[in-house]
């Protein structure tokens, strides 16, 4: 009989039994028909049941049949104990779903390879820099003149590609009134060929498209953008669109899958690097990453050394022009910067750097929640295994081996894990996109690829198997080690079971304490960061980022500003280079009162119009605001931090400062005002010295010059400033059609965007802490309830002999609560040790702070008391008479 027939018979036991019975009966009937006595014929076949089972073993795969039978029996056990099974399934489903969701996020952001040929040979060049606090960091922005030298240095050993940061741009396929936003990347013409990509339609960019600045205005669309924007129209090839002052022709569409190299951003269109003509020959404009693909057989270290040498030669040449007093110190830092090649198999993005550690921490938290859930279910199953001791003893007595009992109990655990995994998968399908929506603000959301493919399926299967072993093995070993004689007499030692359950309680409490400890640090960090002073009231401020097709004189911008001030509902309006805390920064060295840029941190600069201070409601402490006829770099207003650093806190109004321009030319500005400190950059950094200069500016020769971008800052009388958004957008362009609002936001939203990571960590960690607390409480309740049931006769006798209620309470809870305290101390030690791994995510919070340590202790103690009340209440209300009658 074939193996497939034996497997098929394992899933049709009823039909097979009927066929065997009919076949055996037919043989008996034939013997009777041949003249034999019916009883003699039956005796000749032996015992009917035994013969049928022997025949059945020949026709069926016995191992599969036993698994099927155990699965059926396990399902009956699950259905029989609906409440217990439901609690186990829901707790496991929540934990498994959280783990699967965390894996999907970590996989999409950090692990999933780019859909290109041999992603393992892709690297990105990075170099060492000092951050604002003089701590070592790395950067990856490069200038095109240097890129040419790098490519020449490793020619024949590696292919070097320039791929810009993905940026959101305004473009139009029709009139200027039909502007839309899309994500664009500049790429070297040979990038697609190097990555092994193919077109769905048309052709891709080639090396010949990337030779002349502004000479080849071609674009390739991503498959996703083609489907979303054009509905898959195959006639899109040859269509044109305008972006800025350039008109591009669409020459191709990429195949599905590749959406750019920046994880978290789906690039819509790709254009040659030479189309960024303003930056091609600028040696000081870093605007792209340098990607490196190693040739087969070439060592990465060899290529890195050559790239390092090329960078050093370029920097040495550039440093020769530095003649400022601080040039020596700056040159040493510049020339000694370390260079590294970092793997780019999974893409490269700022989001990866920002959220890498956060994703890992969240993964650890959900793993701890899973362990708590497993310990919880293991306790429930251990209690059930104890209750089934007589059943197991009977099975052993009639010949069942230990392996057979292990299989029986593990099959029930596997069924629980499979059902929980299915429900957890549904939870993960919702929760992973939900977490992604928390990462970036609505106007610039993270876009991660979260497919439910073989990677996710493989993780889910491996997780279900691991969970089955984690919570099912201990109860299975306990059940399979039963001693028939002792169990049938009721002589099993109940204390041995409770020791295992108490140990699991200690583990649950330790993990729960750790989760609450870390969650408390994250919540405290978010609270302190979100309440950092910004120096101005951000409510009712609407921000209009505005662009022009070309540099426009100050008068044009002033006319649009005056138009906005006449709009109903506008209290005041002003112009700035960009809004405060927008993420943009203009820094420069300053000479003032004997101080030089040699050892000083760079100073923030911002161009503002007259009336900006009043609109922002930043108090003017001394001096005056700018006047209409004043221009940068002749006049300046400084903040308190500037006065403290450069003038020892004295009033600097009437004094001067100097800044450097092109070719290290120095300019002198008169300080005409002193203002209160206002936050320019990130919430995590201290408010730095800031110099405000007139929005109107002059070039190095003193000639007035225009600008093609700026931000209108409008304070409204309405609580919701976005109510005026459409009106303000229309008014900017109505008077001056050369101006166009590219983005509208509020100052409140801008500030909230600075705490996105912290808000996500605080929210999710609190959710996991609540789940962990619930699971630990259920586990504690289960152990105490089981303990009371096991000891109810003992308790009844003690009550009959005059024991007090508080004595019963102490006896019931002492052992469990001692394990709770032990677990809490273990959790506290783990929490203190965890600080070193999460300290970069914290803000003004330390693990040894009393509030951080008390939060989990008080929470877990309160939950434990609530969980203990029902079992204790049951214990002290046991009826001694009924217990003695039972004896």
TrEMBL record:
Location(s), subcellular: Cell membrane
ABC3 transporter permease C-terminal domain: residues covered: 364-483, 766-869
Protein's membrane topology: Multi-pass membrane protein
MF (Gene Ontology): transmembrane transporter activity
Keyword 4Fe-4S included in the entry's annotation: no
Sequence similarity: Belongs to the ABC-4 integral membrane protein family.
UniProt xrefs under PANTHER family: ABC TRANSPORTER PERMEASE YTRF, MEMBRANE COMPONENT OF TRANSPORTER-RELATED
Name of this protein: ABC transporter permease
Organism of derivation: Paludibaculum fermentans
Taxonomic placement: Bacteria, Pseudomonadati, Acidobacteriota, Terriglobia, Bryobacterales
């Amino acid at each position: 009989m074939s193996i497939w027939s034996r497997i098929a018979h394992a899933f049709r036991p009823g039909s097979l039994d009927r066929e065997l019975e009919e076949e055996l009966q037919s043989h008996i009937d034939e013997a009777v028909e041949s003249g034999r006595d019916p009883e003699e014929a039956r005796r000749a076949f032996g015992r009917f049941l035994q013969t049928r089972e022997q025949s059945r073993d020949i026709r069926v795969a016995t191992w599969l049949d036993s698994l099927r039978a155990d699965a059926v029996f396990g399902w009956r056990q699950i259905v029989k104990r609906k409440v217990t099974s439901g609690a186990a399934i829901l707790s496991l489903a929540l934990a498994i779903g959280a783990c699967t969701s965390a894996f999907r996020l970590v996989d999409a952001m950090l692990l999933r390879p780019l859909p290109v040929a041999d992603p393992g040979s892709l690297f990105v060049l990075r170099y060492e820099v000092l951050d604002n606090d003089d701590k070592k960091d790395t950067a990856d922005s490069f200038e095109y003149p240097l890129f040419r030298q790098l490519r020449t240095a490793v020619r024949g050993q590696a292919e070097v590609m320039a791929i810009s940061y993905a940026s959101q741009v305004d473009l139009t396929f029709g009139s200027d009134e039909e502007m839309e936003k899309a994500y664009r990347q500049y790429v070297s013409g040979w990038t697609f060929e190097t990555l092994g990509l193919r077109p769905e339609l048309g052709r891709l960019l080639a090396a010949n498209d990337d030779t002349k600045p502004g000479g080849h205005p071609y674009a390739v669309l991503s498959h996703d953008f083609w489907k979303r924007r054009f509905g898959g129209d195959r006639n899109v090839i040859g269509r044109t669109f305008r972006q800025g002052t350039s008109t591009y022709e669409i020459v191709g569409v990429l195949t599905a899958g590749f959406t750019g190299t920046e994880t978290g951003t789906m690039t819509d269109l790709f254009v040659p690097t030479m189309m960024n003509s303003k930056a091609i020959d600028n040696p000081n404009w870093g605007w792209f990453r340098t990607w490196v693909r190693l040739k087969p057989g070439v060592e990465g270290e060899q290529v890195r050394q050559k790239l390092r040498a090329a960078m050093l030669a370029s920097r040495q040449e550039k440093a020769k022009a530095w003649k400022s007093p601080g040039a020596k110190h700056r040159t040493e830092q510049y020339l000694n910067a370390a260079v590294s090649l970092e793997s780019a198999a999974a893409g490269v993005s700022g989001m990866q750097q920002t959220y890498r550690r956060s994703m890992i921490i969240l993964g650890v938290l959900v793993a701890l929640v899973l362990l708590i859930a497993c310990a919880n279910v293991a306790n429930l199953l251990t209690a059930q295994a104890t209750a089934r001791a007589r059943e197991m003893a009977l099975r052993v007595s009639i010949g069942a081996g230990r392996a057979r009992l292990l299989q029986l109990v593990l099959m029930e655990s596997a069924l629980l894990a499979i059902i929980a995994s299915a429900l957890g998968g549904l939870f993960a399908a919702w929760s992973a996109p939900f977490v992604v929506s928390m990462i970036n603000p609505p106007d610039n959301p993270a876009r991660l690829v979260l497919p439910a493919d073989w990677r996710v399926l493989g993780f889910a299967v491996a997780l279900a198997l691991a969970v089955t072993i984690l919570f099912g093995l201990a109860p299975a070993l306990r059940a399979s080690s039963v001693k028939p004689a002792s169990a049938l007499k009721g002589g099993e030692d109940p204390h041995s079971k409770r020791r295992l359950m108490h140990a699991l309680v200690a583990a649950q409490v330790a993990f729960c304490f750790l989760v609450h400890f870390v969650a408390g640090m994250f919540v405290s960090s978010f609270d302190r960061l979100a309440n950092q002073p910004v120096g101005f009231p951000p409510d009712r401020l609407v921000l209009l980022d505005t662009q022009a097709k070309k540099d426009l004189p100050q008068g044009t911008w002033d006319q649009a500003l005056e138009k906005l001030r006449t709009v109903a509902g506008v209290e005041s309006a002003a112009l700035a280079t960009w809004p405060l805390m927008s993420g943009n920064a203009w820094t420069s060295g300053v000479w003032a009162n004997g101080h030089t840029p040699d050892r000083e941190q760079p100073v923030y600069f911002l161009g503002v119009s007259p009336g900006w201070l009043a609109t922002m409601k930043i108090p003017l402490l001394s001096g005056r605001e700018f006047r209409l006829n004043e221009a940068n770099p002749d006049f300046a207003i400084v903040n308190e931090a500037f006065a403290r650093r450069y003038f020892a806190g004295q009033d600097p109004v009437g004094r001067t400062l100097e800044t450097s321009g092109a070719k290290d030319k120095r300019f002198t500005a008169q300080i005409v005002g002193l203002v209160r400190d206002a936050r320019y950059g990130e919430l995590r950094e201290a408010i730095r010295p800031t110099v405000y200069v007139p929005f109107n500016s002059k070039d190095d020769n003193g000639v007035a010059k225009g600008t093609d971008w700026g931000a209108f800052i409008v304070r409204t009388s309405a609580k919701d400033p976005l109510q005026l958004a459409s009106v303000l957008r229309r008014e900017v362009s109505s008077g001056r059609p050369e101006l166009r609002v590219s983005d509208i936001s509020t100052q409140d939203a801008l500030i909230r965007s600075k705490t996105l990571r912290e808000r996500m960590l605080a929210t999710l960690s609190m959710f996991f802490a609540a789940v962990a607390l619930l699971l630990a409480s259920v586990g504690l309740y289960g152990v105490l309830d089981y303990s009371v049931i096991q000891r109810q006769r003992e308790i009844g006798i003690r009550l009959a002999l005059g024991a007090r209620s508080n004595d019963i309470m102490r006896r019931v809870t002492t052992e469990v609560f001692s394990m709770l305290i032990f677990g809490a101390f273990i959790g506290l030690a783990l929490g203190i040790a965890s600080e070193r791994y999460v300290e970069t995510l914290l803000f003004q919070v330390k693990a040894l702070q009393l509030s951080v340590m008390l939060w989990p202790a008080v929470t877990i103690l309160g939950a434990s008391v609530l969980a203990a009340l029902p079992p204790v209440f049951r214990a002290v209300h046991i009826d001694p008479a009924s217990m003695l009658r039972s004896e």
